[in-house]
Amino acid sequence: MGDVGGSSGKDSTKRIESKKTNEVQELKDNLLSRYSGYITNLKHEFSRKKKKEKLPKEAKKILLAWWNIHFKWPYPTDADKVALAEWTGLDQKQVNNWFINQRKRHWKPSEEMQVAILDGLYEPLHE
């Protein structure tokens, strides 16, 4: 008789665990059916590569014109950047980033310019 009571307790525990498992699965299924479209959209959004936003052609023409005039030393002053931003309709950060990228991709200071830069850097040490 002790075995019957013991196995009955085990059966009861198994039924409770099974019921909990079913409730959890039902909840998961309910949430999944309710939000799966939203989750799919989020996954798609995150997996998509961010498109490069290109600058307007007219803005690039203006920046390139400044670049060509100042090719030997293409470092616009803050005042130049403000003016370029106004003329192009870009913000100053975009103007600044354009010049950083342009110098990295298309500009190498001449040897004499490099020497002048180095002389300027080391001059205070010799004084």
- Pattern of helices and strands: HHHHH
| CATH fold-level assignment of the largest domain | Arc Repressor Mutant, subunit A
**Fraction in helix:** over 70%
- Uncertain regions spanning at least 5 consecutive residues: none
Q: How far apart, in Å, are the first and last alpha carbons?
A: 104 Å
Overall spatial form: elongated
Largest sheet: none
Number of helices: 5
CATH architecture of the largest domain: Orthogonal Bundle
Q: How many β-strand stretches? A: 0
Percent strand: under 5%
Can you tell me the CATH class of the largest domain?
Mainly Alpha
Q: Kindly report the average pLDDT value.
A: 85
Structural class: mainly alpha
Number of domain modules = 2
Write structural notes for this entry:
Belongs to the TALE/KNOX homeobox family. By secondary structure, the chain is mostly helical. It folds into two domains: 1-51; 57-126, Homeodomain-like (Arc Repressor Mutant, subunit A, Orthogonal Bundle). The protein is 80% helix and 0% strand. The chain contains five helices and no strands. The chain has helices spanning 2-47, 57-69, 78-88, 92-106, 111-126. The chain is elongated.
